[in-house]
Amino acid sequence: MSDQPTPTERFIQGILPENPIYRQLLGLCPTLAVTNGLKQALTMAGAVTVVLFCANIIVSLIRNLLKPHLRIVVFTLTIATFVTIVDRFLAAYMYQMSKALGPYIPLIIVNCIIICRCEVCASKQGLLAAGSDAIGQGIGFGLSLASIAVVRELLGTGALAGVAVLPAAWPQWVIMVLPPGAFLTFGLLLGLINWLQQRQSAKG
Amino acid sequence: MTYLVDIFLIAITAALINNFVLYYFVGICPFIGVSRQVDMAVGMGAAVIFVMTIAVFLSWTITYFVLMPGALVTTWVAQFFVSAERAAQIDLTILSYIVYIFSIASSVQLVEMYVRKFYPPLYKSFGVFLPLITTNCAILFACLMVMSNIVGVENPNDIWDLGRALTVGIFGGLGFTIAIVIMAGIREELDMCDVPEPLKGAAITLIIGGILAMAFMGFTGVDNGIRAALGG
Amino acid sequence: MESSSSQSAGGFKNSNLVQAWLVLLLALCFGSALAAVQVQLSDTIAENKLNETLEQVPALIWNEAPAPETVQITPGTLSVEKQGQASSYTLYRVAKDDKVAGWVVKAGGQGYADKLELLVGVDADVRKITGLFVLEQKETPGLGNKVIEPDWRGQFTGKATETPLEVVKGHGEGPATIDAITGATISSRSVTNIVNATIANLKGKLDASGGQFSERSQ
């Protein structure tokens, strides 16, 4: 048991070294879909973090009672329940945002990040480790989404989170807020991160 | 006649105009992960079409007959416990997501058993991909699309019937297959190119995906023209 | 391999009965959580959906909306025949001091990229368009998207309903022309077509005394 990462290590790993988007390449569907605006991106990151945290806690609590067979069924049931709850909360208290995010909130159920973290961390470690893993991964997810959203929204509409930043003379690169812009931005940013990573490992 | 036109338009829209991968961004993980070789891509695509059709069938049936407010089965059962008026108002849509994900898991199990029994060599080459389809966003997305056209539709005449739902299932999967096979074809050629080191793997695939998405944008508005031409 | 804590729980893991009870218990807990959420929030959500439309209604009839206490908005339906099929419109009867001031109709149709949903405001006898609002659109950002802008929508306000409206490129002269958005003729035409079709379906069926409007029971 002592070769498992500590809660603090789990937390820090989730932000950059084991970043769910740039390093693990999991949960790419919302990454491309909701990053056309900073507000949407952060709301989605918040929703995923909440679901991940709750699911991790529950799975960690019952981890000693689970047979390998039933693992996936229980994970899926837990995640689906929390996603439904989060979806209803958003529809009740943030109605416009819930409409903007549309079908991508229920798609959190099949988001590989959550199932992967339940499998790798929560089903093997205690509450504290599971909780800090969830929060770390959540922050990492939020940072990656925000990085893509900032590029897309700024270049595509000249505004950030709806607040105009670039001068009105900026010819809005509309393609950035359309599907091709999502693919291109993410691909180029991923290449950038890979390049930085390679330079770092070449030095060290 | 208008029904067939409608089906045709739903099919074209799901496969090309609003392509699941290149417009709705669902099914990205296999799009990047499984698109290395054309024959693997075709196999994955075929499996996805299969699973999507069965899953959409199950979702439509359960949503229409059990979950939506005023559904026949629920109303009939509830009549034994509450008044007929209250029974017609019972809304079980909060269970939708759970029901859909479990019907997807069952569809995958069904397809897996079928392929294992009747096409063993195919099953061997599929390996780990089949269970992976359960977490394919595209399948759940198809179910959600069907749900949004049944629940919360103001005009009861606009509620989708089984035919429209199955069309989305089959042709959405077909669109996914088209995208993933094109990508596989390109990547096979890419192996012989000089891709810069940081871009190798997922990054270059995404950039190519972006260019493909731009190409598919050319299909926008085609359904309008077809509709006008067919007088639908 | 397993530490001592999971040794004793190893027996638990392998018992099928415990597994079954566990799943059942989980299902019950989650089920009750969901039921609680449903009971608590479903009214709020329905209200949100309704308010989204209701908020726009007064501005679609009057330029200066009168005090809210004097306005009565009644939702209802109107049965029509669209392309040989029975259908219905969702609409709102807007009255000031109990006198019908106009109607706001929810109308939908195909846009350039995806479906469009509009709110069309007309006066009591369906003789004049009093306002237009775009509820839902997925047109091209920066181009067809501009149909939501008040400047473009304002063209519809005050237009008579005798002749169907026509979209012209550039600047149109005449009482029944709408200027298209540069580079987004199809989106402009789609919106105008929906408005024309809706007006054609409403004419003769609505008037100051109510006509064929049927109130929706709350």
Explain this structure to me?
- The complex is a heterotrimer of chains A (204), B (232) and C (218).
- Chain A is mostly helical and 204 residues long.
- Chain A has helices spanning 7-15, 28-33, 38-61, 68-93, 95-101, 112-122, 127-157, 179-203; strands at residues 159-160, 163-164.
- In chain A, strands 1-2 form a two-stranded antiparallel sheet.
- Chain A is globular and about 60 Å long.
- With 232 residues, chain B is mostly helical.
- The N and C termini of chain B lie close together (8 Å).
- Helices cover 35% and strands 28% of the residues of chain C.
- The N and C termini of chain C lie far apart (65 Å).
- Chain C is globular, with a radius of gyration of 26 Å.
- Classes of the chains: A mainly alpha (204), B mainly alpha (232), C alpha+beta (218).
- Chains in contact: A-B, A-C, B-C.
- Chain A binds chain B through residues 25-26, 28-29, 32-33, 73, 76-77, 80-81, 83-84, 87-88, 103, 106-107, 109-112, 115, 175, 178-184, 186-188, 190-192, 194-195, 198, and chain B through 22-29, 32, 94-98, 101-102, 105, 134-137, 140-141, 144-145, 148, 196-199, 202-207, 209-211, 213-214, 217.
Structural features:
heterotrimer, B: 232 residues, mainly alpha, 12 helices, globular, C: 218 residues, alpha+beta, 6-stranded antiparallel β-sheet, 5 helices, 8 strands
Summarize the structure.
The complex is a heterotrimer of chains A (204), B (232) and C (218). Chain B has helices at 2-17, 28-33, 38-67, 72-78, 84-89, 96-118, 120-126, 129-132, 137-148, 162-190, 202-216, 222-230. Chain B is mostly helical and 232 residues long.
